Automatic annotation (TrEMBL):
UniProt protein name: Aminopeptidase N
CDD domains: M1_APN_like (cd09603)
Domain Peptidase M1 membrane alanine aminopeptidase intervals: 284-480
Record's signal peptide: 1-19
Naturally occurring in which organism (per UniProt): Dactylosporangium salmoneum
UniProt EC number: 3.4.11.2
Record-annotated Aminopeptidase N-like N-terminal domain positions: 74-245
Biological classification of the source: Bacteria, Bacillati, Actinomycetota, Actinomycetes, Micromonosporales
Protein family: Belongs to the peptidase M1 family.
Annotated spans, Disordered: 27-53
Enzyme category, top tier: hydrolase
Keyword Zinc: yes
Reactions the enzyme catalyzes: Release of an N-terminal amino acid, Xaa-|-Yaa- from a peptide, amide or arylamide. Xaa is preferably Ala, but may be most amino acids including Pro (slow action). When a terminal hydrophobic residue is followed by a prolyl residue, the two may be released as an intact Xaa-Pro dipeptide
Length: 488
């Protein structure tokens, strides 16, 4: 996510996005509940191609109502169709999963806005129902056995509330526009507003997405674009993705392409007229990637891009950033603010996307790196010294800790508020000062490279920093994350 800091040495404003509810569906199709025998290996017969999607799911302590640590989704195959005239999304989700614990039923997050049209488990008809935010499918799966779950559904997408007091708060999840289009931002949860998902950050999976839309419309999703045949657009993610980092949009879009460093393909999707003032910055995407690569190593995915949507915020959705057009107050502020925000979201591709947090207590691990990267960029752009920036940042840090608490244990009702941005950015600055430019940027680059496709936490980050630098930063990191006041 991005946050708008209009002038690096003054107090700033912020931005963001939102989630989903719906009508009760009809009960799912009938059928006996099949029992699934253990597979020959954790990546059993036929599932080797999805082995990169293997995760170690953990229960999220901040939003325990979402996610299921007993299920490890390896791959989502989503076949979707959107009918704007009836505002109906029809879907078939083919989900390859591993039982991280013995299962007597499979529970995933899903919106009650959808009617279930059929469920199969390993090719046999199964029963399934949606209660609240959970899809429950009958069937036993032994620990470390693999299973294929197919869910067919249809309905009108509905969003869920965003647990935050930010001034750019919007509902989370798949949003239907007045003209019949779609778009989504869904951090910390909300992917389950458009497909059955293990909607927690620790369970990363591979994706193949196909979306069929009316003639003249475009469908955009995360992952590497695979082109379109007729009115069906396809995308594939071969590096695991956390559910909150997936994206989907349907509308009457214009498309541009560009080449980034080392020929990385970049796709820009925008709405003619509505997004015109963003175009100069979208077209700077190769420069943003080049600036980041010089510091943090090669861009970690096969493709990049930006998708413009009618939002007040922006989101680091993997390989395809989802950006709105906030009200920055003036044309001058837009030029500096949107430029900084887009750099911030590209920085997240290394920090937050390639390496995601294990649970939402560690949101600082995403936002601290992206925010510090943004400030390094704007300080360089605006000729602000590191000393000037730190003086301002310490004042902001003190106010934020007093108002929101320390960044290492954010409040559930205050998701992604300013303390998880500025406070950990200032912490990273302390490490930067102690080890110097070369060692600091090497640390960031190696962290993203060594842990690509995984979810990590505070303990693994501290261990990595200590090993990489040969210094013990344990006390420094813990103090900056846990102290109610700004550390000296």
């Amino acid at each position: 996510m991005h946050r708008r800091w209009l002038v690096p040495i003054t107090v700033c404003a912020v931005l963001f996005a939102g989630a989903c509810t719906g009508d009760s569906p009809k009960p799912a199709a009938s059928g006996s509940a099949p029992s699934v025998a253990p597979s020959a290996a954790p990546d059993g017969p036929g599932y080797g191609q999805w082995s990169a999607g293997k995760s170690t799911p953990v229960a999220d302590p901040v939003y325990p109502g979402y996610g299921n640590p007993a299920v490890d989704v390896l791959h989502y195959g989503l076949d979707l169709a959107w009918a704007p005239e009836t505002k109906t999304l029809t879907g078939m989700a083919t989900i390859q999963l591993r039982a991280a614990e013995p299962l007597t039923e499979i529970k995933l997050d899903f919106s009650k806005a959808y009617a279930i049209d059929g469920v199969q488990l390993n090719g046999a008809a199964a029963t399934g129902r949606v209660d609240g935010t959970k899809l429950t499918v009958a069937g036993s799966v032994a620990k470390d056995a693999d299973a294929e779950l197919v869910v067919k559904y249809h309905g009108t997408p509905a969003t869920v509330p965003m647990p935050s007091h930010r001034n750019d708060v919007e509902p989370l999840g798949l949003t239907v526009t007045a003209d019949g289009g779609l778009w989504t931002m869904q951090e910390p949860y909300g992917a389950s507003t458009w497909y059955p998902a293990n909607d927690q950050p620790s369970d990363k999976a591979l994706y193949d997405i196909a979306v069929t839309v009316p003639a003249g419309w475009s469908a955009i999703a995360g992952g590497t674009p695979k082109g379109h045949e007729g009115n069906t657009f396809t995308y594939s993610a071969t590096v695991p993705v956390a559910s909150y980092l997936t994206t989907l949009a349907v509308g009457k879009y214009q498309q541009e392409t560009a080449a980034g460093p080392r020929g990385t393909p970049i796709t820009l999707w925008y709405r003619a007229g509505a997004d015109d003032k963003a175009l100069p910055y979208l077209r700077k995407s190769p420069q943003y990637l080049a600036w980041l690569e010089q510091r943090f190593g090669p861009y970690p995915f096969d493709s990049a891009g930006v998708l413009m949507v009618p939002s007040a915020s922006g989101m680091e959705t993997q390989q395809m950033i989802t950006m709105g057009l906030p009200d920055y107050g003036s044309d001058a502020d837009f030029k500096t603010g949107f430029d900084a925000d887009l750099l911030h979201e590209y920085a997240h591709q290394w920090f937050g996307d390639a390496v995601s947090p294990t649970n939402w207590n560690d949101l600082w691990l995403n936002e601290g790196w992206a925010e510090y990267s943004q400030f390094l960029y704007t300080n360089e752009r605006d000729k602000v010294t590191a000393q000037q920036w730190e003086s301002w940042a310490r004042g902001a840090d003190a106010r934020l800790r007093k108002q929101l608490g320390p960044p290492g244990k954010p409040r559930a009702d205050s998701f992604a508020e300013s303390n998880v941005y500025i406070c950990p950015a200032l912490m990273l600055h302390q490490i930067h000062k102690q080890i110097g430019d070369a060692a600091f940027f090497s640390l960031g680059a190696d962290w993203a490279k060594a842990n690509r496709g995984t979810a990590q936490d505070r303990a693994s980050f501290i261990a990595f920093v200590n090993q990489h630098t040969g210094k013990d930063f344990t006390a420094l990191i813990n103090t900056w994350l846990d102290s109610p006041t700004t550390p000296k």
